[in-house]
Amino acid sequence: MAIAFAERDTSPELSQDGATLHYWVTGETDETIVQSTLLANTPTTVAGGLIRNNVRIAPVGLGMWDADITYSLPPANQSAQAGQPTFSFDTGGGMQHITHSLATIGSFAPAGKTAPNFKSAIGVTADSVEGVDIVVPVYQFSETHVLSDSFVTDLYKVSLFTATANVNADTFRGFAPGSLLFLGASGSRRGDPNGTGTGDWEITFRFAASPNVTGQTIGDITGISKKGWEYLWTRNEDVEDAASNTIVKQPRGAYVERVYQETTFATALGI
Question: Which pTM does this prediction carry?
Fold first, then answer.
């Protein structure tokens, strides 16, 4: 019997803080499959900007399950008890290994000879292009948000985990797609000064931004474009440099590789 689920007559259940969808699930005895099927086939957001934050399932028997999926406002829209976020930043930059310069400013050779033209390659040897480590622009910043206990569910924590080491799929905090890397989040639960039975959470989100590049030139290769956290590398070949009568290494191809997954941060992080 194939797994099937249907929304119950009592669904949705609306409240001041959010909404809950109620489902019957049948045809499956494995709890993991039931939960993954619900996650794959229910909306991540519902009307009013509510974000899915928890899935609860309980067995009824004979392959039937009672399932509740709760939705709540994102942290930015929560009540004053969540508090105001704080921000910090650092423009210290980062290190990057490059094999080609922006331009060769000068080349020098003994009298009567011509220095080989390596087409901006750095540290060329007989077998390779060694390159050099340089400082590049990397803008690092963090945001600390105080979130309600009802929002910071196990499902939300997993969402932060899976979004770590992802780049933004669309514009986020003014940064163009592909230029912002989520470095992860750290959080701790605070006390319960009001005696409500639950505290709140202080969570710090860390990011690093690297600018997108267009119109880059490497050797004779022009028009290279790459997003900030994509990886650019070159394939060099032996070419005869007629002016110096020397076999030199020059770039034959430039390649841009996507090395990080893309995620919609507003949905995954809820901020």
Answer: 0.65
